[in-house]
Write a structure and sequence with these properties.
Strand order of the largest sheet: 3-4-5
Structural class: alpha+beta
Helix content: 40-55%
Order of helices and strands: HHEEHHEHEEEEHH
Strand content: 15-25%
Number of helices: 7
Shape: elongated
Length: about 170
């Protein structure tokens, strides 16, 4: 397959910064899509790509952080919440909290409703704190959101795991 040099650079830079590659032009998006068809890349989120071997080597929390870093570059005002914030805070949590989505905190119920890949949680205030360089809800809010997003069967376990105090995970 003929390689698009600009796409090679996008993929190399993305891996070096622990992000996903994304197309900024129609030519980039088309070249990335061709690489997906050739199974060189995986489409891991809308207009976000990673080398198949590289992506498969990542743990689920690392995958979420890659997607979140990429989204933050494209939408710097977004505040991550719920299971996404738990992964960014580096909390131990159940992977089913992600369910293939990214969760955001929002202060309005306007036209930016939740979609298949982006889930929004309404909050009266969304002043972020930063974890690993990304805007996230507070640790306490993250634990509550994780607990509220699970079934009663998993709720106590999720809260206990997220709230487990360690030197790097204190409230």
């Amino acid at each position: 397959m003929k390689h698009h040099k600009a796409v090679d650079i996008l993929i190399t830079k993305a891996e070096a910064t622990q992000q996903c590659a994304y197309g900024t032009t129609k030519a980039h998006r088309s070249a990335l899509a061709r690489r997906v068809q050739a199974r060189e890349l995986k489409r891991v989120f809308p207009n976000m790509y990673a080398a198949s071997e590289y992506w498969d080597s990542l743990q689920p929390d690392e995958r979420i952080r890659h997607i979140a870093r990429t989204l933050h570059n494209r939408h710097p005002d977004w505040v991550f919440a719920g299971g996404t914030a738990a992964a960014i805070h580096d909390f131990e949590h159940q992977w089913h909290l992600h369910a293939g989505t990214i969760t955001l905190a929002t202060t309005s119920r306007g036209p930016n409703a939740s979609s298949a890949k982006v889930k929004r949680i309404f909050t009266s205030s969304s002043t972020p704190e930063y974890a690993n360089g990304l805007p996230v809800t507070s640790k306490a809010r993250t634990v509550v959101d994780c607990g509220l997003s699970t079934s009663d069967l998993h709720c106590p376990l999720s809260i206990r795991r997220c709230a487990t105090a360690s030197p790097s995970r204190t409230f």
